[in-house]
């Protein structure tokens, strides 16, 4: 039997492949879904006999793409060390203040791994939909995943040992290379972003050692944070989600933002700065919550200014009939503005803090800041939602000593007694104290800085006294004005009562006069009748 020429062999192979692809395209296009599913199942089973390799898929997102897979992240970290040696195409990211690079596999790249003598193939893949449809969220259609391929004889080793090994190794690598991040939520109009959050490296240097606050109060906060961080089992025991709320309130410049940064650095948490005015509605707020990672701080600054959180807001509805074109244009613009306005309600925010959805994740701190605590709804800041209320007040002497050590490296000075006395009588924020203490030029003496602070406190005292005198004068003026208005009202009331009494008297007098005239008239008629009757009787007698 003569062998088949090589050219004819490849022609036959090409024809077979073309026929197979044509038949498969016909099946995909015209066969019903259920029949197609049966065909695919038996096709996979047939090829399974021929292919001795097993493949496991690790998708990037789980739970209807609402949350990033921890397994995917662990594998990504695990492969960062392997891929730097074996892969040909890599992606680099700077971490740890750009002192090192973390390398990872590029899309559609493959590396070979080995574990206990078992050969394993890793593939980084991405699927982009081929449909040419117009989507408001095109980037969210991308599907990224890792493929793990191994021989069927190694199934037990891979499933029982290797997968647990890569998860533990990936978490260790993440902890080693972890760079904390500061996140901001995307506007609802930023539809081109795949995630609801964007981030930059968190590099704020604040810490509790340099925080200008009374040491006892500072230590109390540190103890509370440590208790929370080590309290996973305790929260499970009492049946609560592993989260804690802090309300920071006080005048501007008292260090609320610095406190948040110090807490983040102490706990080694990421910070999520939530801008409520950029959130479209309560549903989007829940989506943001789901995407927040564990070990994080959720911050809503100046919450009293963010939204009208006094309940369901009332919208003014027009009841007038349609007018001319100009009026229609105005109504159209009003509707467009209403669409842009955030629909987040107080109820939605309360559910975000401690509702059922708040348990999607753990080890989270929720921090609100405000300059006016009294403006907030009681339901929003009650214990259980805002568990700990921290007042950030004006600078006291203990806080001043911390600032003096931070800015001037001075533990004690002869001017401290005077400064202590002035701080007790004068309200000055830590920000203003720090500005006065900061040297203004190279080589400035510490004494000059303390003199500038004393001068600032004196000026603040004068300004405060002047403001107080103006407020008292304004209050006295208002009281005098109210007194004058009260006298005028009483005088007007007396005049109205006198006028009413006069009218009543005149009305009564007119009534009495009318009664007399009526009686006189009645008497005249009676006399006439008597005379007439007498006449009649007289006539009758005649």
UniProtKB/TrEMBL annotation:
Residues 242-396 form the AAA+ ATPase domain. The chain crosses the membrane at residues 12-31. Its cofactor is Mg(2+). SUPFAM superfamilies: P-loop containing nucleoside triphosphate hydrolases. Residues 314-337, 464-542 are annotated as: Disordered. It catalyses: ATP + H2O = ADP + phosphate + H(+). Keywords: ATP-binding, Hydrolase, Magnesium, Membrane, Nucleotide-binding, Transmembrane, Transmembrane helix. Residues 325-337, 464-520, 529-542 have a biased composition (Basic and acidic residues). Belongs to the AAA ATPase family. BCS1 subfamily. PANTHER family: BCS1 AAA-TYPE ATPASE. This is AAA-ATPase At3g28580-like.
């Amino acid at each position: 039997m003569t062998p088949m020429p090589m050219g004819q062999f490849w022609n036959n192979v090409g024809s077979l492949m073309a026929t197979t692809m044509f038949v498969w395209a016909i099946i995909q296009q015209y066969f019903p879904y259920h029949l197609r599913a049966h065909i695919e199942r038996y096709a996979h089973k047939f090829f399974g006999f021929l292919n001795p390799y097993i493949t496991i898929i690790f998708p990037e997102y789980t739970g209807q793409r609402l949350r990033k897979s921890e397994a995917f992240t662990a594998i990504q970290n695990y492969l960062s060390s392997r891929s730097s040696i074996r892969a040909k195409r890599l992606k680099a990211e700077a971490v740890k203040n750009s002192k090192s690079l973390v390398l990872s596999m590029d899309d559609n790249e493959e590396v070979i791994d080995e574990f206990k003598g078992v050969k394993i193939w890793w593939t980084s893949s991405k699927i982009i939909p081929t449909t040419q449809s117009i989507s408001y969220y095109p980037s969210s259609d991308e599907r990224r995943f890792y493929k793990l391929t191994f021989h069927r004889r190694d199934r037990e080793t891979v499933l029982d040992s290797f997968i647990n090994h890569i998860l533990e190794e990936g978490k260790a690598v993440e902890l080693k290379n972890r760079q904390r991040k500061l996140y901001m939520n995307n506007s609802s109009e930023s539809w081109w972003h795949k995630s609801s959050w964007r981030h930059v490296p968190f590099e704020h240097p604040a810490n509790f050692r340099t925080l200008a606050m009374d040491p006892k109060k500072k230590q109390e906060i540190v103890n509370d944070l440590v208790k929370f961080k080590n309290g996973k089992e305790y929260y499970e025991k009492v049946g609560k989600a592993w989260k804690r709320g802090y309300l920071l309130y006080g005048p501007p410049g008292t260090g609320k933002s610095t406190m948040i940064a110090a807490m983040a650095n102490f706990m080694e948490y990421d910070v999520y700065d939530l801008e409520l005015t950029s959130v479209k509605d309560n549903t989007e707020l829940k989506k943001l919550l789901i995407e927040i990672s564990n070990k994080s701080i959720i911050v809503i600054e100046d919450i009293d200014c963010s939204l009208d959180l006094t309940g369901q807001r009332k919208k003014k509805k027009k009841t007038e009939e349609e007018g001319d074109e100009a009026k229609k244009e105005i109504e159209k613009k009003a509707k467009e503005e209403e669409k842009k306005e955030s629909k987040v309600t107080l109820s939605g925010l309360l559910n975000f803090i401690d509702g059922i959805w708040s348990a999607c994740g753990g080890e989270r701190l929720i921090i609100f800041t405000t300059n006016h605590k009294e403006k907030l709804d009681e339901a929003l800041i009650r214990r259980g939602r805002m568990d700990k209320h921290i007042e950030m007040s004006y600078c006291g002497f203990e806080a001043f000593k911390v600032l003096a050590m931070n800015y001037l490296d001075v533990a004690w000075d002869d001017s401290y007694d005077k400064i202590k006395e002035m701080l007790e009588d004068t309200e000055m924020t830590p920000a203003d104290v720090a500005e006065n203490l900061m040297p203004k030029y190279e080589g400035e003496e510490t004494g000059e800085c303390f003199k500038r602070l004393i001068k600032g406190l004196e000026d603040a005292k004068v300004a405060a006294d002047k403001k107080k005198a103006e407020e008292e004068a304004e209050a006295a003026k208002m009281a005098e004005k109210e007194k004058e208005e009260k006298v005028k009202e009483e005088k007007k009331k007396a005049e109205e009562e006198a006028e009413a009494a006069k009218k009543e008297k005149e009305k009564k007098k007119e009534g009495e006069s009318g009664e007399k005239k009526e009686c006189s008239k009645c008497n005249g008629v009676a006399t006439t009748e008597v005379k007439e009757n007498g006449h009649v009787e007289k006539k009758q007698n005649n």
